[in-house]
Amino acid sequence: MLPRTIFALVDDELPLLASLVPLAGCDIIELGCGAAPLARALVRRYPDAHVTGLEVDERQHAKNLAAPQSGLQFMAGGAQAIPFGDARFDLVLMLKSLHHVPLALMATALHEAARVLRPDGHLYVSEPVYAGPFNDVVRLYNEEGAVRAAAQAALDEALKTDDWAQVADLRFEMPVRFKDFAAFEQRMMRPTFADHQIDEAKLAEVRAAFEPHCGPQGASFSRLMHARLLRRRA
Predict the structure, then answer these.
(1) Phi and psi angles of residue 46, each rounded to the nearest 5 degrees, phi first
(2) Distance (Å, rounded) from C-alpha 151 to C-alpha 106?
(3) With CB atoms 3.0 to 4.6 Å apart as the test, which of 59, 126, 168, 199 could cross-link to 229 if both were Cys?
(4) Range of the domain at 11
(5) How far is Cα 223 from Cα 226, in angstroms, rounded to an integer?
(6) Is residue 198 in some structural domain?
(7) What does the alpha-carbon distance between residue 52 and residue 75 come to, in Å, rounded to a whole number?
């Protein structure tokens, strides 16, 4: 088993990714790209790279199309049915997205990632850990313990196939900051891709858990992360 590498704090995941795989001139697909902040930063830093962002949420996809950027293209679709041919990409990214894939389709999504990668291409999966003060607030309205565990289990199962070899297993913390509870509510509790059924009682419960973390400069948390880098076997 590969040794785990622990980084105390990672403020920006892009340099961490760049330390693991070459990004210059890379052809990349991000599955479940959301607003694609890392992809946007990546193509600014590596102008000869190209990123395709695949997003299943129609509202977020429309926002992405309304904010074009050189080196980026956006397409609608899910990780379980990637609309590209075989051996198309050098790198597949899944940033906090594998646990959003339906449980019955996680294995299919990882097989699809292997299919669209060139031999010796890489899959980088970064997932939040179900632990810590930030998770304690979020789980009050969005319980993800089972799906996060399933995402790691799906990676473990994928490594038993002939598709993959694991080359890195990383644990780190990422800072998450909010100006106030209203900013947290808008960003975390009312995303475009999910309806968390927030009523007044639930809003009050989450506010009570959030406010002890809030000071004059807002609220700062450290989100625990688990990232794994897999190589597509030749």
Answers:
(1) -125, 80
(2) 7
(3) 168
(4) 5-175+222-232
(5) 10
(6) no
(7) 7
CATH (domain of 116) = 3.40.50.150
Is residue 1 predicted with pLDDT exceeding 60?
A: no
| 135 belongs to a structural domain | yes
Token pair of 216 as six digits: 């004059």
| Two tokens, residue 7 | 């980084």
Q: Which of 128, 109, 115 is nearest to 227 (CA)?
A: 128
Phi, psi of 87 (to 5 degrees): 50, 45
Q: Are the CB atoms for 51 and 14 separated by under 8 Å? A: no
Asked if residue 201 is part of any domain, the answer here is no
Q: Is 206 a domain residue?
A: no
pTM of the predicted structure, to 2 decimals? 0.94
The count of structural domains within the chain is 1
CB 143 within 8 A of CB 202: no
* pLDDT per position as a tens digit, 49-98: 999 999 999 999 999 999 999 999 999 999 999 999 999 999 999 999 99
Cβ count within 10 A of residue 106:
23
Q: What is the pLDDT of residues 139-198, one digit of tens each?
A: 999 999 999 999 999 999 999 999 999 999 999 999 999 999 999 999 999 998 889 999
